[in-house]
Sequence to fold (149 residues):
Amino acid sequence: MSRLVYVLNGPNLNLLGKRQPHIYGHDTMEDVEADCRKVAKAHGLEIRYHQSNREYELIDWIHEARETAGGIVINAGAFTHTSVAILDALNAFDGIVMEVHISNVHKRESFRHHSYISLRAEGVIVGCGIQGYGLALQRIAALLDAKKG
Ligand code: CA2
Fold:
């Protein structure tokens, strides 16, 4: 299976490091991307890294991943809690899906406790800060290695 992994980020995550550092920390989206590239390189993965505030763009990238990628790491932001459309797109993807949330959503408002993405994800990493992205990439690398046999 392909070692290309899409790392997808949803709405408002472009504000990372610029607002609400008590919840999301001081690192920016650029820092997250740099960290992902470092972890990916160490584990022999190639990544395509994207952020969008538009639901359809996230869906289009998931469709693109269907053709080429072995895995998707997704932090769908608030769409996590609302988007059946993103779940449907992920259900049409055959590779490994890892869901990431920077904050511990279970310590927060009850509307953040439900995730449509979790109905599809192989694994979920919450509350580990931006380190969660690297952990998700490591998990995808391990699962791809296991498939290779
Ligand atoms: O903890 C996470 O990673 C979330 O996916 C972040 C989403 C939130 O709606 C989810 O419930 C949990 C929000 C992303 C907004 O990010 C901001 C970052 C800095 C300043 C403002 C928003």
Observations:
- The chain has five helices and five strands.
